[in-house]
Amino acid sequence: MPEKRLREDDCTGTARSIPRFRRRLFMLVKTLIAAGVALATSQAHALQILDYGWEDGVGTILGSFGNLADATNVSGPQSGSDGDSSYGVSGARSGSRFLHVAEAPLSGTPQAYLAFVTGLQAGDLVSASFWGYDSSAGTNPSLRIWGHYADAADINSYVKSAGGSNTYTDGSGWSELSNTWTFDGGATDGLVIEARLYSMTVGGNDRTDFWIDDLRISAPDHATIQFAAAVPEPESYALMLAGLGMMGVIARRRSRR
């Protein structure tokens, strides 16, 4: 029986099919990778950023520890004492309102509870910052940002310290303090953001005054951020809307591919 011979065009067709197969395989792998990235992105926690600058004229703090006194929502020039001399601040760092707190009498290290973040999960990142007024370079009075873990149902509960920054207000006027915490889980899901007050311990005036402004908190969107205000301020709404808009743009771009 004569041997069957392949036609030249049969060989050419087979050779041409190999590059097409490779291209299809490459596109399939690319599609699978893109799908995996999209899935990972959709499962990642979106970030919320909320601001509070006491502009509501009502809110002060959520709670306190130690000899913290006279938490008030103030505006305009303010005067106070550091236990040794008198000093003052011309007004808010931004806007027209800000927070005043005092330590009276001087004892220990009082803490003002500025924000409460609940609903956290192990590994979550929470960042916070605020501006404190300090006109005494190199010495107290000064402020520091700190935190502690608490039961989500009770901001005044105390589970353990969350630590904070070793940076103090620098004495140049308004200066920013910030810190980032990695939530370690454990027996609670609440993080209290504090301003720690450090006073002079000499002089005849048993009182020290402090001022705070422009608080900002960022946390995963499954968490709840509480301020002394009932609702976020307009800047916070703008940030949330901008984030939602960006997510919409990304979703539309993906749908066109």
UniProtKB/TrEMBL annotation:
NCBIfam families found in the cross-reference section: PEP_CTERM
Domain of life: Bacteria
Domain Ice-binding protein C-terminal residues, every copy: 230-254
Protein name: PEP-CTERM sorting domain-containing protein
Keywords recorded for this protein, A-Z: Signal
Cross-referenced InterPro entries: Galactose-bd-like_sf, Ice-binding_C
Gene3D superfamilies per the UniProt record, alphabetical: Galactose-binding domain-like
Family matches, as SUPFAM superfamilies: Galactose-binding domain-like
Signal peptide location: 1-46
Species whose genome carries this gene: Denitromonas iodatirespirans
Keyword Disulfide bond in annotation: no
Keyword Metal-binding: no
